[in-house]
Amino acid sequence: MTSDGTLHILSSIDLIIKSGESIAVIGESGSGKSTLIGLLAGLDTPSSGTIRLNGQSLTRMDEDGRAAVRNALVGFVFQSFQLLPGLSALANVMLPLELAGDRQAKAAATALLHRVGLGQRLNHTPRQLSGGEQQRVALARAFVRQPAILFADEPTGNLDSKTGTHIIDLLFELNLENNTTLILVTHDPTLAARCGRTIRLDAGRII
Amino acid sequence: MSRFKLALRLLWRDTRSGELTALLCALIIAVASSTAIAVFSDRLQLTMTTQTAEFIAADLAVASPDAMPGAWRAKAAQLQLSQAQTVEFSSVLIEHDELLLASVKAVSSRYPLRGFLKTADGDMVTETIAHQGPETGAVWVDKRVLSALKLQLGDTLNVGEKTLTIQRIITYEPDKQGNYYSFSPRIMINDGDLQATGIIQPGSHVHYVFQFIGTSPALAAFSDWLKPQLTAAQRLLDIHKDRPELGSALDRTQRYLGLSSMLVVIISGVAIAMAARRYSERHFDSTALLRCLGCRQRDLLWLFVSQFIVLGLIASCIGGVFGWFAQQGLFLLLKDLLPQQLAAPSILSLGFGFIIALTALLGFALPPLLRLKQVSPLRVLRRDLAPLPGSAWLSYGLALTVIGLLLWQYTGDLDMTATLLGMGAATVLALGMVLSALLDAAGKWLPLLGLRWRFGVQGLTRDRPAAVSQILAFSITMVAMILSFTVHNDVIRNWQQQLPEKAPNHFALNIFPDQLDAFRQTLEQQQISGSRFYPVTRGRLTAINNTPVQQAASKDSSGELAIHRELSLTWAQQLPDENKITAGSWWLSERPGRVSVEQKLAESLHIKVGDRLTFTVTSRQFQADVTSIRSLRWDTMKPNFYMVFSPGTLDGYPSTYLTSFYLAPEQKNLLNTLVKQYPGITVMEVEQILHQIKTILTHTTQAVNYLLYFAIMAGIAVLYAAVYASLDSRIYESALMRALGANRGLLRSAHIIEFSLLGGLSGVLAVIISEALLYALYSRVIDIAYHPNFYLWLLVPLAGALSVALTGCWGLRGVLDKAPLCVLREL
């Protein structure tokens, strides 16, 4: 709701994504891309309609139920990295494993940080890392639980093109290694072209 | 001007969006409480000064052995001062073959100018308040006069050559002096009958008191005009010198009020600092943008400072109104205890609340604001680019110094201000470092903890400077509250201990050495408990190190009083009860020629240990060396002495004994028996004085109780501001954790653990700091025995944990139910 009345951000969305698919969501600013993947990831709830993830209805669950699904099935990479500022790179990556009660959290997180090339920066806090390094930590955190589905919201939006390309390469490599379903929001047509399917949004509708 | 308009526009925008709510609330509470306390204390003090004026029955009074010069009368009339006069002298009354030495007081028609008289009927049941003394032809008497002279109301009584009708029994006179001269039973007559008694002859020993009331400027002008004309035998009466037992009770109350106001200001300052910090952090982005758009650093600083000044002015007005109503409410609650006529507040006190508020605002809000100046324009590209923290210690140090100076000005008590601020700052600094090290160590133990505890403790360790400053802020707040509460309790307990239920209410004087044993036995037989018997020799201090004492005392000093009259000199082998040696040492051997001097008199006459004092007793002189200085309490209602000599020094000089004892109301008749059995002994009743002191204590106790509520209110403001200051980062973190799959139960328990640790740790620190400060305060300033408060060690950390956890969880309550995406987008 706004002062001018009801604002529909998304409407008439009917979308099925199969396991292992890679999908690019494109569209102009304000077309509802981030809202769409936020809803699909269970980070928000729609005012009407149903979202099913891996056979489970996200819309019927309460917040804690969605949290459990997010922890077990979903990985998320944000445009602005969204790392916890007080935690080291290692602690940030360990977090999803710890929340799941994994006793091998440290070993798994360390291995993945080595994999993304940050083996020497385990104990650095986000403030001590460059933008590209922070996004690599975010990638490691997203993949550390080996999620069934990964959402990436303009992952290179805050990075220069060279670093951006490195990150995207890494993202696709990890995606391939883990056989993860990928849903990627982007403005970049070349990046969209690397995905199996492209969905274009305009004023909240798929066209 | 356009920049000022921009500042106003930004301020309006922030206010509308709710950005300033926390800061404004903190400010309004700060202003309201400091204004309320300043105005309340000011009015209370003024009212109490007026009330204490009752004890000299006027605003200004002059004691003199001679009648008032005509020029004084004319000057007072010219300044439109109202005047009254009392004349006191001793006279022997003879009726029905009984003799009685009475103290006659002849009063003018306008006496008493302040306060009132109380009289009773023959049955002593109904008391009547009178605002004038007896008419001509009438006499009011003490009840003891009737029983001693076998008289009744309505009988006649010969006072000198004049026959007067006994009209009423006098039970209370406001200015009855508590010294050892006014012990004889009182009879009061109209001064129109004075001449007809024929008692006053040239050379008679008469005590005149001239009393005046009027406006403060007129009184001040009269006092200034009068002072140079006073002869050595005349002096201005002063509550502190003439009624020391009341003076010291008032002194301590004023100290306590000063302490309370200082503490509330400090707590409010902490709240402002917390709220300003959040304000500043939430403005990093817009500041970076303004800088990006070409705003210079000093323009930015000006922009924010001018916004804060406007904010301060608005908050001052709102808070001032609240403060005004708050203090009116206090007086309303206290109306049964306080005099009906309340003093109006001075403009200075209204301004004081305002100045303190603005000083606290700028002093405490400046460091976070200065941080805004440092915001890099690059932040528009890299949001995580936070400005370096400013030199907070320097800035807060500045704020504390400014407040310290203001409070010193207000309380006039450098010792108290310096003790609290100095020790407080040093302790806080040291504890800040210890705390930082402690959190560092806690971080290393994290992996050993369970998930909930780990997240909870992590909340504290991940941003150490923020956690340290928050714990310190809570600690300071709790310290202020503990101090308010404990000092208040201890001061009251101390007062009550001094004036126990059965505090001596009678003094017996002029007990001759050969009567001593018999008198002591009589008291024991009647099961009357009394203090020690002190030998007393009357004498004057005449020289200090062979210099005449008149040269040592200035006219205004309290020492002046002591050198113009005979002092009660005593000797003792043991240090008298409740006396404390402050310099030198008490004698262990019985060598004569040594003297111990009361501290205030010693200060006033510049007497030091090692000085040689000369005394005159019955026209003979002797000398004694000062071996110690003693402090003592004038409000104990036990015999107190300016000069105590070593045994043997006063041998060969005439002496009598003196003691004090408690007589229950039903034992009153014993007085007449005592007076008859020992006609030479004088018994003096001090019940009225005791009653007056107790009334004052009740009044002030009630008042300081209410002042505590302000400290609590300011404390709540701190809690609110502090929790909200760090709310954004907590909201962000919990949203992110939930995005990663943390459930609400886990986060809620982590928050409870984190906030409880924060509150509990602050509580432990607060108790440590408080105990240190209390020790310093009691031993150096208030002069009360220090006892560790064991219950605080349990109570304060528990209360701290509970209140911070509750407030914190309340602040975060909605956040856990909101969709994580909404939260992440909002921030």
Determine the N-to-C terminus distance of chain A.
25 Å
Q: Which regions of chain B are unreliable across 5 or more consecutive residues at pLDDT < 50? A: 178-182
Largest sheet of chain A, in brief, is:
6 strands, mixed
Strand element count of chain B: 22
Characteristics:
heterodimer; A: 207 residues; alpha/beta; Rossmann fold; six-stranded mixed β-sheet; two-stranded antiparallel sheet; 7 helices; 15% strand; B: 827 residues; alpha+beta; eleven-stranded mixed β-sheet; six-stranded mixed barrel; 22 strands; 53% helix; elongated
Structure report:
The complex is a heterodimer of chains A (207) and B (827). With 207 residues, chain A is of the alpha/beta class. Chain A contains 7 helices and 8 strands. In chain A, the strands form 2 sheets. In chain A, strands 4-5-6-1-7-8 form a 6-stranded mixed sheet. Chain A is globular, with a radius of gyration of 17 Å. Chain B folds into 3 domains: 2-50 and 247-497 and 694-826, no CATH class; 84-208, no CATH class; 531-661, no CATH class. Chain B is built from 24 helices and 22 strands. In chain B, helix 10 runs antiparallel to helix 11 (347-373) and helix 21 crosses helix 24 (820-826). Chains A and B meet through helix 2 and helix 3 of A and helix 14, helix 21, helix 22 and helix 24 of B.
Which SSEs are present, and which pair or pack?
The complex is a heterodimer of chains A (207) and B (827).
Chain A: E1 22-27, H1 33-40, E2 52-53, E3 56-57, H2 63-73, E4 74-77, H3 89-99, H4 105-115, H5 131-143, E5 149-153, H6 161-178, E6 181-185, H7 189-193, E7 197-202, E8 205-206
Parallel strand pairs in A: 1-6, 1-7, 4-5, 5-6
Antiparallel strand pairs in A: 2-3, 7-8
Helix pairs in contact in A: 3-4, 3-5, 4-5, 5-6
Chain B: H1 2-16, H2 21-53, E1 60-64, H3 70-78, E2 82-95, E3 98-107, E4 117-120, E5 127-130, E6 138-141, H4 143-148, E7 156-159, E8 162-172, E9 186-190, H5 194-197, E10 207-213, H6 216-226, E11 235-236, H7 239-242, H8 244-282, H9 284-292, H10 297-333, H11 347-373, H12 392-411, H13 414-445, H14 451-461, H15 464-498, E12 506-511, H16 516-525, E13 534-544, E14 547-548, H17 559-563, E15 567-571, E16 580-584, E17 594-598, H18 599-604, E18 612-617, E19 620-631, E20 643-645, E21 656-661, H19 670-677, E22 682-685, H20 687-725, H21 727-739, H22 744-782, H23 790-811, H24 820-826
Parallel strand pairs in B: 3-9, 6-8, 15-20, 17-19
Antiparallel strand pairs in B: 1-10, 1-11, 2-3, 2-10, 4-5, 4-8, 6-9, 7-8, 12-21, 12-22, 13-14, 13-15, 13-18, 13-21, 16-19, 17-20, 18-19
